Amino acid sequence: MKLVTTTLAALLASAALAGSAAAECEVTLRSSDTHPDGYPTVEGVKAMATEAKEKSGGRICIEVFPSSQLGEEKDTIEQTQFGVIDMVRASFGSFNDIVPVTQTMSLPYLFKSEDHMHKVMDGSIGEEIAKGFEEKDLIALAYYDGGARSFYNSQKPIKSIEDLKGMKFRVMQNDVFVDMMTALGANATPMPYGEVYSSIQTGVIDGAENNFPSYDSSGHAEVAKYFTLDQHLMVPELVAMSKASWEKLTPEDQAILREAARNSATVQRKLWADQEKASEEKVVAAGSEVIKDIDKTAFVEAMAPVYEKYVTTPEAKDLVKRIQETE
């Protein structure tokens, strides 16, 4: 209850600052994001807000609160379930304890490419996954792109699975990640993100894994010059709305929001692709070597014991099969 009260107080203060602009709107929805202003996910929800306001004749307004102003992801997800916050943008990973099907989406090499992930999430599988959120008082409005994680290291270009043997890579404290590295023949070293730079620099680890923007902004490209674009993990991002807030809307306004959200995903994905490209160009110009077009067959086949351990129910096995078969 204390968390609810604190968040409510923050919302009331933010609403006061919004001033007369919000007063012009018949429906004002507050949306939370942990990323800073200007980040692709924030700009995606802003695009949704612009379209919703235009198509509703100014009746629907969405106020976007970036930089964790309303709390961190897990807290704001909970408040969205309660209806204290109207909308939230969060990674699928933050929903793992709430909507079990999201755990399946964190399996390594589940998606062949970012385009494949988009096709899966925009189709019937995405609609099916959305039902799992509704059961938890959340309405899934749009699936955004959170990028693809790949390996980078200070020792050598990784062009095949054999090149990974015996190497030490930092991974998040996550059993799936640890088991993934073991299956690839490498050694997983869980550690805080802030320790990665110095650990690569001093040889405690050989490398880590992340997307191009993080590889760039963290400075890791300075000490780990070899980036292998294997894209072993792609976790979707979600824009979700409180079911309580959703049910207060007319069917017409719900339709406006759904269309605006769907269109905003296109905007967000384009912005993310541009950011990835800019980061890649920057690190290459600074001396990094990007290894592309590797044959991932052996990497994917090595995941058999990982999938056997974590994909245990008939429903999960069927979902994985359908995702892999999506063209």
Automatic annotation (TrEMBL):
Residue ranges the record marks as coiled coil: none
Listed Gene3D superfamilies: Bacterial extracellular solute-binding protein, family 7 (3.40.190.170)
Record keywords, A-Z: Periplasm, Receptor, Signal
Chief localization: periplasm
Any one Gene Ontology molecular-function term assigned to this protein's record: carbohydrate binding
Protein origin, superkingdom: Bacteria
Protein's cellular compartments: Periplasm
GO biological process: transmembrane transport
GO cellular component: outer membrane-bounded periplasmic space
Signal peptide: 1-23
Protein name (Swiss-Prot/TrEMBL): Tripartite ATP-independent transporter DctP family solute receptor
Native source organism of the sequence: Paracoccus lutimaris
